[in-house]
From TrEMBL:
Protein name: Cytochrome P450
UniProtKB keywords: Heme, Iron, Metal-binding, Monooxygenase, Oxidoreductase
Record-stated family: Belongs to the cytochrome P450 family.
Pathway the protein acts in: Secondary metabolite biosynthesis
Molecular function in Gene Ontology: heme binding; iron ion binding; monooxygenase activity; oxidoreductase activity, acting on paired donors, with incorporation or reduction of molecular oxygen
Cofactor(s) the record lists: heme
Database matches in InterPro entries: Cyt_P450, Cyt_P450_E_grp-I, Cyt_P450_sf, Cytochrome_P450_fung
Amino acid sequence: QAATEIMEKKGWALVGRPRLCNCLRRDHVGGHAYAGDTQWLRFRRLRKAIHTHLQPKAAGAYQRIQIDAAKEVVLDILNDPKDHARQVLRYAASVILRVIYWKSTSTSKDDLVIARIAEDSKHIQIASRPGAFLVVLLPCLKYVPGYGRVLHEHHEFELSLFRDQLGRVTDDMSRNKASPSFGRMLLEKIHEHRLSGGEMAYLCGSLFTAGSDTTAVGIMTLILAAACHPEAQTRVQEEIDAVVGNDRDEHPHCSLSPTFEDWDQLPQLQAFISEALRWGPVAPIGAAHRATRDIVWRGLCIPVGSIAVGCHWAIARDPIVFPDPETFDPQRWLDPNGDLRTDIHFYNYGFGQRIRPGLHIANRSLYINSALLLWSFRILERPDAPIDANGFTDSIITRAPPFEAEFVPRMEEKKLREIMGGIL
């Protein structure tokens, strides 16, 4: 309740970022980063550029990309079920690369760009840990020769990665071969958005780095939840079978496999996704906000300059909102009629005006992967490889522990391959 009343309803007063971001994201990365931006007017320009091209209607245009890539995940798992984690990462990276830069070539799990994305994400997580760099407490250290060398080196690596990708879009535009993408739309409206070349490169790059990492983590959490909670998985599969069918010979009137059009008819699946992300929140701590003006809440004053954090993990474990919070129970999200409840909400994507801008694309990725995987497979814990359901990593972006699972096709494998192979 406090997070909602302060960070949502008064979010306009919490758009700042703390000194951590000043030191690590402005002084050491050339002032280009979007996620850690602390300057209000510049932040608004960046935010407007994102919302113009990633709002719900615009995000809907990418559904074909997402469903085709999700079908490739099913085929990849049929070929190599032990490597499901890398296959999910391939999905997340290939979708976001296509959305942001329209990288039209099939992105394999061994692609060099994916490796560079993973390296960049790893560094960001290390740099974002509280206390990782003493300069946060002693800003004067930034003037010491040689201090921050690691940060500067990462900035050069990151900027090179981001400029390479946006540069390819620029080259395609010069040859009139550029397909629609977020990067192309930014370049076409460069004067309207008033962004420098470095700002555009970092804006696109920040979206594809953060988007690919968190999307992959979310999908892996859903797979883990299915393997650890077979009863909940069964409920979802029964619902999908009733809506879509799981055998096209027996259900000729149904779609061959789940699509985005089935979303509103699958409340059990929506509840399963919501519960999985509550059970294992992708960003358990949440991003820190800095008050840009005094905030009065219930007679208490949060003075300007204060740091506010909406701790997703604590919110997810609030026994008043989520009774018996350690129990995995998707039914808590449904009313007695089996419809989704409207009186509870979990802020997976942050708060207020700092909410994650790619949330509409991320939600669609979580849905279509869950729908296709649970329609295609019975996901089981292997008797010889028990899963540590509580082994999530302790980091800014929490990850499911490495685990093996059995992916048992729910229909004849040849038929499943035929359906999933019908990629447009």
